[in-house]
Amino acid sequence: MADPLARYVTNTDRDVFALRDLPEEVIAVLFAYYSRSRDDLRTNLRKLIADQDLALADGSAGGEPDLALAREKARSFHEKWVVGYGHASVAEHAVVHLAVERCSIIAAKALEDARLAAYTEKSTRYVRFDEGTLVTDIGLPKQAQGVYEHSSRRLLALYAKLADEVEASLAHRHPALEGMNAKAHAAALRAHACDLLRGLLPAGVPTNVGVTINARALEHHVGKLLGSPLLEVRRMGDAMKDEASHIVPTLLKYTAPTAHRVGADDRVRRAHGHLHSVASDEQHALAKLVDFTHDPLRTLGAAIRMERFGGRWDEAWRLAHDLTHSEDLVKAYLADRGRHDQPLRALEQVQLRFEFCCDYGAWRDLQRHRLLSSTTPLLGTEEGWWLSPELDDLGVGPAVRDALIAAQEAHHTLHREHPWEAQYAVPLAFRVRWLASMNLREVFHLVELRSGAAGPRGVPKGGAGDGPRGPRDLPVAGALPARRLERLPLRAALSRAGSALGRGEPSRALIARSRAPTLAGTSRWVSRWPRPNSTSSTFRADHPLLIRNTSRSPQTAQRCSPAKGDSGRSSLRARSCA
Known about the structure:
By secondary structure, this protein is an alpha+beta fold. Helices cover about 40% and strands about 10% of the residues. It has helices spanning about 25-30, 40-50, 70-85, 105-110, 140-175, 180-195, 215-225, 230-245, 260, 265-270, 295-310, 315-320, 325-335, 360-365, 390-395, 395-415, 440-450, 485, 490-500, 555-560, 570-575; strands at about 95-105, 115-120, 205-215, 285-290, 350-360, 375, 430-440, 510-515, 525-530. The strands form 3 sheets. Strands 4-5-7-6 form a 4-stranded antiparallel beta sheet. A 3-stranded antiparallel beta sheet has the order 1-3-2. The longest helix has about 30 residues, at about 140-175. The chain is globular, with a radius of gyration of 27 Å.
């Protein structure tokens, strides 16, 4: 006779096994027994089957299990232990997979704000968006709705018109190399064209998102979505609750928005009063390191000692006073690191806080990093826009700028009465300013993932003709997609800092080295740290990572000057250049 357990576990006699064909809430119950039972999971599962407590034995003529009673027993368990007694960690073992389709990019960013989840979203770089698609039911009155739709559809029409034109121009400029797969070359060119033009997409275009999340995180996140000021996001939260309740009905039963979260914006605005921000001459900086762990090299050296040799922190800190020795420790700690090796855990003891100003498309890429704790900016037009200089080279820059100026005017009109809904009309090229905190280990991950020269292989620019292999093999200046680094500010800031240090900036400490390609003319070292002032716990004002991009090159100044035919509009463009 077959073992009834075989249907639900991948093996019945080894110490490691997987569960299958069980409802998510039942799985959560079985794992919960680990904390209260001396028996293993299979023993407990066998008892539950024998006692018909979960009714997992075959119950139909076709041999399929009758799981109705199992689900009901699981609901009773969760009502008592999770809802009644607050043992919420049990709910983390129940996992839900949700497909959220045809939501706006604005709603998708609200959805992806939960850090304890995994997401896959429709790419603005690899997928061409349709001209006629737009999320329109966003709660605007008729007149404001007309402004929003007219502006957004103008942007989408230009996007569709230029897509084929830009792709054809790129194909002419960068023909496939001999022996290169024609289909792969065409796909790479299309991705590059989409990436160049995605700044035209209004944030109200629909996208699709796949979500994998545990029930505990989902319960909290759905409550947050239900309290959003945006109608579309609230509706999305309701739909997610309804659909997920088919999988984890008990664990989402009492999900609701809270007064604490719903009223936060009004409370802060009342407390803020009529204070205004102080004008700064650093408004155009791509990225600025505003704070970091005091004495980072010594901190890292002490952390490595404790990780490898144990002992007390005060003793490890005392021994780490020799920064030359600490630097040797760090180098040994990072040695032999391969392309896919994550840095070791001691790097997490060094914390950094950055202020970023980047286009919304770049923020979308960075926001999904789970170990990055960031503020969520309100999408607007005050910080200007970012466009690739390549658009001017292709002859489409003026048309794109005119469309962005018109969108900026539409946003101003909507923002007066509908500041939240006005975000939908803003193209992704416009920049947002936000704050992000991360540890040094996450900096490694972020820099290496987001600054790689991904894109069309074999498409030459400055002589490079192959995909990325390492900093010695492929400098970013020789790869077609170098514009990604111009837009992603963290890499630019760290690389500029490395460049400054490479020209003789005093430093005793090498902290990090990246295997991602570097910006042209910069040092290969991603970051170095000056020896901290022993009498102060604050960072130096002249720290090389404090990137102050307040001076403009002649080329930048030329790009920022009003174009012909733009008279009367130059004030709207003034902040579009950095």
